[in-house]
Amino acid sequence: EQARIGVTGLAVMGRNLARNLARHGHPVALYNRTPARTRSLVEEFGSEGEFHPAESLKEFVDSLERPRRIIIMVKAGAPTDAVIDELVPLLEPGDMVVDGGNADYRDTRRREKALRQQGLHFVGSGISGGEEGALNGPSIMPGGSAESYESLGPILEDIAAKVDGVPCCTHVGPDGAGHFVKMVHNGIEYSDMQLIAEAYDLLRHAAGKRPGEIAEIFRTWNSGRLESYLVEITAEVLAHTDAETGKPFVDVVLDQAGQKGTGSWTVQNALEFGVPVSGIAEAVFARSLSGSAELRAASRGLPGPAETWLDSAASDRFADDVEQALYASKIVAYAQGFNLIQAGSKEFGWDIDAGAMATIWRGGCIIRASFLNRIKEAFDSEPGRPTLLTDAHFAEALGNAQAAWRRVVSTAAQLGVPAPGFSAALAYYDALRAERLPAALIQGQRDFFGAHTYKRVDTSGSFHTLWGGDRSEIPAD
Ligand code: NDP
């Protein structure tokens, strides 16, 4: 008997994905460049299902039923190309190659095109949830042809996380759509984490609460509208004590955040498309700033405000304010991320169903949250909506939160606690609301120094003012 699906690349992700497939009754072919990984998988977990280990790529390919379904789970970038190049000569028209790594969607577009020309289906699939998700149910974001999804979809939906019986997997769209959506997912994750970190920082360094107390606050929040995996694990991390020193764990960890690059990809793409994702950008920059050890050391002596703490009465009320600011800022972060998905979808003709993306993020992935149901409803009621912020539920929540949100941002500024995520989110909200923006002045400046021309509010066409002459206005086109 032949295997229904194959996995090549059996490090943590590939191994767990293969086990997940086998546990769901799908016979899985296995191949890894270094055979020791294949052998140890079968030795340790062979009893979990039907595995077909192979020691050569040819043997692996031959062990699969046709058309073949192959998931590549290797290091993103050049290794993925190397594996594809090795694999393609062994395949036949109609075979399907899934890249489950964190690929750049532009690479996915290139690979999809190349394989399509050879009669093969290439499926760039975002997979979120880390190793735990891969084993017990990830959120899966597959791109590629509709035809390949017909064959792969049922298997992927089978192993994906389920929420209310609905799988966290759907066909995202053609070629790079899946990896694009995965990239934005990661950008939103950055933003979400940054906002939570700012909430903690304010409770700690403005309201004077201890990590253990803040853990309790997060626990309470996790039973309300902020219920999410990230808020849940935040409480766990804050409650944890370092065994060595007896200090709060958060105090013994070096405060320099790492990043693997998908947050910055999101921002780079947003810059290219001209989509303001200020919350995600601030989150990426906040990590970069945290890691700028030399810059921080040189700046440590700069003066701060005289007052650095809230008084105790204010600090008791403050936690509620921070909850409001966090919820409002989170709405903004998601609104910005979804705008980027819509922009990518438009640019590449992907026709992505935004509401369906909210649905498949409800489980399995790092940003899973009950709040995503609201986002789904918002897109169901108006699929092409310009922004999530104007959805009735979110608009009301923002309206109710705004006074507290403003207090939090101004408190942060007054007490000298950096809150770039909260501040950027509020500025975005106010800028979108504004009747008039100072962009009119910028147009004036651009016309003054560069004759870049401007449009008028009261008539059509472009104009230029003769700034160096008699300052009369002339039509510019
Ligand atoms: P790694 O990214 O560490 O990649 C290791 C695997 O790649 C090994 O199987 C290795 O084979 C193989 N490999 C590397 N170079 C080559 C090559 N030139 N030819 C053949 N095989 C090669 O593994 P992970 O499991 O952490 O991640 C796999 C993919 O999943 C990555 O793209 C990652 O970004 C993505 N991902 C990871 C998540 C995570 O939480 N770790 C979450 C979501 C996605 P060998 O054993 O022979 O060295």
Automatic annotation (TrEMBL):
- What is the uppermost EC class here? oxidoreductase
Q: What is its EC number?
A: 1.1.1.44
For the 6-phosphogluconate dehydrogenase C-terminal domain, which residue ranges apply?
178-468
Give the matching SUPFAM superfamilies: 6-phosphogluconate dehydrogenase C-terminal domain-like (SSF48179), NAD(P)-binding Rossmann-fold domains (SSF51735)
- Origin: domain of life: Bacteria
Give one GO molecular function term. phosphogluconate dehydrogenase (decarboxylating) activity
Would the keyword Cytoplasm turn up in this protein's UniProt record? no
List this protein's GO terms for biological process. D-gluconate metabolic process; pentose-phosphate shunt
The UniProt annotation places NADP(+) binding at: G9, L10, A11, V12, M13, G14, N32, R33, T34, V74, K75, A76, N102
Binding-site list for substrate: N102, S128, G129, G130, H185, N186, Y190, K260, R287, R446, H452
Q: Which InterPro entries match?
A: 6-PGluconate_DH-like_C_sf (IPR008927), 6PGD_dom2 (IPR013328), 6PGDH_C (IPR006114), 6PGDH_Gnd/GntZ (IPR006113), 6PGDH_NADP-bd (IPR006115), 6PGdom_BS (IPR006184), NAD(P)-bd_dom_sf (IPR036291), Pgluconate_DH (IPR006183)
Q: Which UniProt keywords apply?
A: Gluconate utilization, NADP, Oxidoreductase, Pentose shunt
UniProt pathway annotation: Carbohydrate degradation; pentose phosphate pathway; D-ribulose 5-phosphate from D-glucose 6-phosphate (oxidative stage): step 3/3
Function as written in the Swiss-Prot or TrEMBL entry: Catalyzes the oxidative decarboxylation of 6-phosphogluconate to ribulose 5-phosphate and CO(2), with concomitant reduction of NADP to NADPH.
As for family, the record states: Belongs to the 6-phosphogluconate dehydrogenase family.
What is the official name of this protein in its record?
6-phosphogluconate dehydrogenase, decarboxylating
